[in-house]
Amino acid sequence: MDLIKHTTEWAKGDALQGKILLFTGLLLIIACFFILKNDNSMLKGSLIPLALLLIFCAGYGGFLTFSRPGHIIKTEKIYAENPQQAVETELIKAERDNKAYSMIKKIWPVLIILTAGIYFLVSTDYLKGLMIGLLVLFVAGLVIDTMLHHRLEPYLKVLRELSGA
Predict the structure, then answer these.
(1) 70, containing H or E segment
(2) How many CB atoms lie within 10 A of CB 104?
(3) What is the CA radius of gyration of the chain?
(4) Tell me, what's the pLDDT at 18?
(5) What domain range includes position 11?
(6) 94 exposed, middle or buried (CB, 10 Å; 0-12, 13-18, 19+)?
(7) What is the tens place of the pLDDT at every residue in 73-90?
(8) CA 46 to each of CA 53, 88, 126, 159: distance values in angstroms, whole numbers, following the listed order
(9) CA 158, chain centre distance (Å)
(10) Are 163 and 76 a contacting pair, CB within 8 Å?
C-alpha cells in the first residue's frame, strides 16, 4: 500500500501545480487583453511569447489537473490485481519522465542565454519586447519543469526501493 500512498502524494502535487498553471493562464489572458489595448510596441512584441506561455500554461496545467487524479485510480486498480506490476509500470513511467525533465532542463538555459544575447543585438522596440517575452517564456518553462522534476525525484526513489532496483 506504500505505492498508493506515494503515488497519491505525487499526483496531488502535480494536480496542484496544474491548477496553479491554469490560474497563471487566466492572469496571462488578462495581461494579453491589456497589451492588445496598449499602443506600446515593446509590449506588442511580447504578446506572441506571452500567448505561447498562455497556451503552455492552459494546456499543460489542464493536463496535470485532470489526468493526475485518474492516474491514482488507474494505479490503485493495477496494484489490486498485481502489486509488483504496478510498481514496475510506475517505475518505467517515472524513469522516462525523469530522463525527459533532465534533458529539457539543459535546453531552457541555452534558450535563455541565446535570447538574452539576441536582445542586445536587436534595435527596434518590437524585437526587444519579443526577446523579453521569450525570456519570460523560457524562464517560466525552466521553473515549471524544475518544480515537476523536483517533485518526481522522491517518488522515483521510493519506486526504485519498492522494485528492488
Answers:
(1) helix 41-81
(2) 16
(3) 20
(4) 95
(5) 2-163
(6) buried
(7) 999 999 999 989 999 999
(8) 11, 44, 8, 42
(9) 22
(10) no
The pLDDT tens digits of the residues spanning 16-28 come to 999 999 999 999 9
C-alpha 80/C-alpha 117 separation (Å) is 54
Report which of 34, 24, 29 is spatially closest to residue 140, judged by C-alpha positions: 24
Looking at the structure of the chain, the number of domains it has is 1
Say which residues have a Cβ less than 8 Å from residue 2's Cβ, sequence separation at least 6: 158, 162
Q: Yes or no: say if 136 and 46 are a contact pair by the CB < 8 Å rule.
A: yes
Alpha helices in the chain (DSSP H): 2-37, 41-81, 83-119, 125-163
Phi-psi label, residue 122: left if phi above 0, alpha if psi -120 to 50, beta otherwise: beta
Residues counted in the chain:
165
pTM of the model: 0.90
Amino acid at 86: A
pLDDT for 46: 95
